[in-house]
Amino acid sequence: MAIVRSVTSEKIINGIKVKTSELAIVSENNYSTNGEYAIVVKSVDNCVIKLNSETTDRIKIKAMTSVLIVPDKNRIDEYWDEIQIEKGACIELVQIHANWYILSSDGVKLW
After folding, report:
1. What are 63-78's pLDDT values in tens digits?
2. Is the CB of residue 89 less than 8 Å from the CB of residue 108?
3. What is the average pLDDT score of the chain?
4. What ranges do the domains of the chain cover?
5. How far apart are CA 104 and CA 31, in angstroms?
6. Do 19 and 10 touch, CB atoms closer than 8 A?
7. Cα 58 to Cα 23: distance, rounded to the nearest angstrom
8. Is the pLDDT of residue 109 over 80?
9. In degrees rounded to 5, what are phi and psi of residue 17?
10. Of 1, 5, 82, 106, whose CB count within 10 A is highest?
C-alpha cells in the first residue's frame, strides 16, 4: 500500500495554510483528502475516501477500483451520506459553506 504525491505545494483553504501536493496516487484502503487538486485511486480492491473539509475545498477523484466517498460532516448534495463510484469513473466535488456538492461526474461506466 502506498501514496505517491507530486511536488509539495502550499494552499490557503478555509483561511488555513495547508501543505499539500497537486496530485496523488492512492493505493490504500482508507485515505483522507489533504488539499490535492486530483487523486487517482488504484491497486486496491476497495478504498474509502474521506472528504476532509479542514484541508480540502475542491477535489477530483478518478477511480481505477471501487471507491466509497464519505464527507467528514454534512452530506453530499445535501442528500447523500456517501457516494460509491466504480472502476473508470471520475467525479469532481466542491465544498461550499460546509456542504459538499458534485460539480461534475462522468456517471456509470459500462464495460
Report:
1. 999 999 999 999 999 9
2. yes
3. 86
4. 2-105
5. 21
6. yes
7. 13
8. no
9. -75, 125
10. 5
For residue 65, the 8-state DSSP code is: S
Q: Residue-wise over 68-84: b if at least 16 C-beta within 10 A, else e? A: ebbbbeeebeeeeeebe
Euclidean distance between CA atoms 10 and 81, whole angstroms:
30
Which cell numbers hold the place of 14?
478555509
Cell digits of residue 74: 454534512
Q: Is the pLDDT of residue 12 over 80?
A: no
- Say which residue the cell 488539499 belongs to: 35
pLDDT tens readout for residues 16-54: 777 667 788 999 999 999 889 899 999 999 999 999 998
Residue in the block written with cell 483528502: 33
Residue reference for cell 466517498: 69
- How is 25-58 classified by DSSP, letter by letter? EEESSEEE--S-SEEEE-SSSEEEEEE-TTT-SE
Report how far residue 48's alpha carbon sits from residue 61's, in angstroms, rounded to the nearest whole number: 12
